[in-house]
């Protein structure tokens, strides 16, 4: 059963504590002895008992007679007293003193926080000291308290030293001083940012200069808000630090060099010096006067997919040996050689090309870049053939013209006669006499009397590259006295729409197809309904065309015009499709 105890301070003595339990019962100490009679020279063990109180301090008193004054047994405060002195003993239990509670007083002083060195932007590995200064408190023995995110074991000195900072040292720092029960205010917060070790950045206003010139190099450390840097410059080959003999040191972070070489830099600050990573290196070249030229072999800047071409870098003057470099925005990059041979061009070879030379004997001496040359790789072209005139007139010659889409050079031309091939639904081509590889893009045929079809194509280069064949083009003959002819029923040039017209191929041949060359320049091979050698059509506007027959053995018939006009567009002239011979009657 628990007892609630209450105690109160005695009126006259701090050490006299009266306690009671909840029922108000006085608590009284009792003293017990292991014996009440002590043999001479012996001792007795006294025990002081205060109900329910375990952890008390005790006072012991002795009287020489019942009424004599109590004297304190000096130095005894345990519950058990061993004594070898007889007398009247009493004891008293006493609650222990509390731990002290400190009541501080704030003094109106705000310490100043300083950084040594003074950079708030620092880098992992740097060392920095945060110092707490209390003005007006000089001479006093302050101890210091530090505050910071996650700073768990603060030092008590006025310096907080961060050695080889890491990212986790980032944060806001502040301090205050403490002396006895006096406390200063907290200082303002200084925010430290710790970044990863930076890499110096080297910028060159130019990477090459003519003999006698110079370039300016700039070294910097990011972020640009960081300060206190000194810059160190290095050059390859001579191997070490750039000395004032090799360069003009401009303001901090800039030098002007007039010697080719590979340069790099780094930054350093602090004591001991903290260094950044080295910058990337840049190559600075001296430009010599030799001029490179990009040349194409063959010299066609417009080429076609699959063609072969060589792009060459030529440097004239002197017998210097060169290494070559190319610059191009094409997808495929040429190797760094004098000559780039493209065996089968593709659109990935399209682009601007320029080159420069680098002296084999002196690697930091180069030529200027050449002018750039544009190479355009186009799809395989299909030339366009024109035939003039379209209708044969006796005695006139026929002129063929073959044109390759993109203007370009070096073509020779091939001229073919189309030979009807009914099974293939196309035609095969037969070279015309002297029609192979002509330099001219036109070809003249004399004495042509029958309807005929022609095709051309072009080729160039070595190995020769050929374009596709052109679409076939025709020259038509109206002469009915040829081996094959076409008759139209009803026999008239003009027809209304939805007329029933039959076209019949005539001649001593077994197989036929009717061909149609429409107003819009399209060539048709199929008659929708062919019965034997007759093609029946129900006319519509799109049937306005030139018609002729082709036999299975390659014969062309004479050709006819048929025009179809809408019913509403007035009358039609009824005239025969074939030219009439002199003296014949026509209705
Ligand atoms: C090809 O060479 C000739 C003469 O060498 C030159 O006049 C012409 O400009 C060159 N064409 C191209 C496209 O380089
Ligand atoms: C050619 O050399 C330049 C400069 O040294 C280099 O940047 C480039 O990658 C090289 N090109 C090839 C294809 O090796
Ligand atoms: C190369 O650059 C030129 C000029 O800037 C541009 O006209 C051309 O389209 C570019 N070619 C390619 C393949 O990027
Ligand atoms: C067909 O029409 C064209 C022009 O439309 C003409 O030059 C040609 O002589 C005509 N042919 C016949 C056979 O009527
Ligand atoms: C048609 O051809 C056959 C065999 O080639 C020949 O016997 C016949 O005489 C020819 N007829 C005409 C009208 O040419």
Textual characterization of the structure:
- The chain is elongated and about 185 Å long.
- The chain has 587 residues and is an all-beta fold.
- Strands 9, 11, 13, 15, 16 and 17 form a six-stranded mixed beta sheet that branches. Strands 19, 21, 24, 25, 26 and 33 form a six-stranded mixed beta sheet that branches. Strands 37, 38, 40, 41 and 42 form a five-stranded antiparallel beta sheet that branches.
- It has six domains: 1-98, no CATH class; 105-195, Immunoglobulin-like, CATH 2.60.40; 201-287, Immunoglobulin-like; 292-378, Immunoglobulins (Immunoglobulin-like), CATH 2.60.40.10; 384-474, Immunoglobulin-like (Sandwich); 484-565, Sandwich (Immunoglobulin-like), CATH 2.60.40.10.
- It is built from no helices and 51 strands.
- One of its GO terms (molecular function) is transmembrane signaling receptor activity.
- InterPro entries: Ig-like_dom (IPR007110), Ig-like_dom_sf (IPR036179), Ig-like_fold (IPR013783), Ig_Fc_receptor (IPR050488), Ig_sub (IPR003599), Ig_sub2 (IPR003598).
- This is Ig-like domain-containing protein.
- Residues 25-92, 111-195, 198-265, 292-376, 381-458 form the Ig-like domain.
- One of its GO terms (cellular component) is external side of plasma membrane.
Work out the strand percent: over 45%
Shape: elongated
The biggest beta sheet is recorded as: 6 strands, mixed
User: Helical region count?
Assistant: 0
Task: State the separation between the terminal residues, measured CA to CA.
Answer: 147 Å
List the ligand species: 2-acetamido-2-deoxy-beta-D-glucopyranose
The number of distinct structural domains comes to: 6
Helicity, as a percent range: under 10%
| Backbone CA Rg | 57 Å
Identify low-pLDDT runs.
1-21
